[in-house]
Amino acid sequence: MIRQRLFSGIQPTNILHIGNYIGALKQWVDMQEKYDCMFCVVDLHAITVPQDPKELRQNILNTAATYLAVGLDPKLCSIYVQSEVPEHAELGWILSTITRLGELERMTQFKDKSKKRGEKVGVGLYSYPTLMAADILLYDTKTVPVGEDQMQHIELARTLARRFNSQFGETFVVPQALIQKVGARIMGLNDPKVKMSKSEAPANYIALTDEPDVIRKKIMRSVTDSGQEIKFDPGKKPAISNLITIYHHATEKSIKQIENDFQGKGYGDFKKAVADAVTEMLDPIRQDIQDYLKDPAELQKILDKGRDAAHDLACKKMCLVRKKVGLGRA
Description:
With 330 residues, the protein is mainly alpha-helical. It has two domains: 5-184 and 295-325, Rossmann fold (3-Layer(aba) Sandwich); 209-290, Tyrosyl-Transfer RNA Synthetase. The chain has helices spanning 18-31, 43-46, 53-69, 87-96, 101-105, 108-117, 123-137, 151-168, 212-220, 238-251, 255-261, 267-294, 296-325; strands at 5-10, 36-41, 77-81, 143-146, 176-179. It is globular.
């Protein structure tokens, strides 16, 4: 049976955190047995905001090492660096010619980031959703695992696939989004109203490379809601609901079971349990990341293999796209 193609990627802009793991990486590990998976380190997206070149190169390797440490198997999936397959950028440019200004102006992430950066915003930050669509469509991707905040981007990819097919003839598969029901968005420990982010203060997130004592301090100091009841209610109790979600993924206990286990207990007892569970979950990942980074030759070999596999697929698709659009010589 032919498996459906699945594509996803994470920007190598900093240390990956538990929100990345629960919202994306943990899903990827489960999916690699079921889908034909392409997992990309999206460094072209990273440079939509200023990066230190030396740090970016190291973060690319850190991200790839993290992919492997969480359980991605290069025998089951392709792991590669986006910029090493130039067809991503080429298709991104071609799709930009059929993308409408209004579609990009509606993107909430651009609005949020541009407010922070003001006049320093580059065109790339505005148009990167078109490149994201190219990332997906380049490989005839059928399934894209995403968080709820990424749905706009998947809808744009679907729109552009249909528009290109209508204008130039059947070329692209129209992708479908796959959203995790619990944990698609892990919120900040210091502010449960905003998504956990590696661009925020360290108190906001738990890095996958944090030592156990650091993890415990961050969780014990995380903000809480009024009252002492351990109850999942994101509307009324966003802080404790966020911790319940993290605990749910660390222990695989159901939300209802967690509520029952901590009935009559306070926030202090619950935070200690969350800290224990998260430390136990992340300790082997942290150690494996260190091990992969100590052996860069093996890491490079895996990335070379993934790049070659991705490039073979991308070349075939771009030959068809160029022909459909009329680029080059007959």
